[in-house]
Amino acid sequence: MESRSTTTVVVVLLIVFTFPIWVGIAGGLFGLIVGLIGGVVGIIGGVIGAIGGLIGGLFSWAFNGHWPFGFFHVHTLTIVLIAIIIVLISRSRKI
């Protein structure tokens, strides 16, 4: 009988004294998981921002980047490129 009560006391003391370690490990794992999820969300946001920046940069280059959207200040090269794109699209639809 003495062995059981001693074992129980030792187990209880072990759990009580190692409780902060277990809480720390649980908190660390929680932080790791949430940090990884935040990193994935950040990467997705960065990719979306890069795509938006690319589209915005192309329109800014094509239409002089003026606000409001100044179409009448377009470079000749831009008009030629738009015409070439329209011709290529119309030819590809006929085939």
TrEMBL record:
This is Uncharacterized protein. Keywords: Membrane, Transmembrane, Transmembrane helix. It comes from the Bacteria. The keyword Transmembrane applies. The chain crosses the membrane at residues 6-33, 40-63, 69-89.
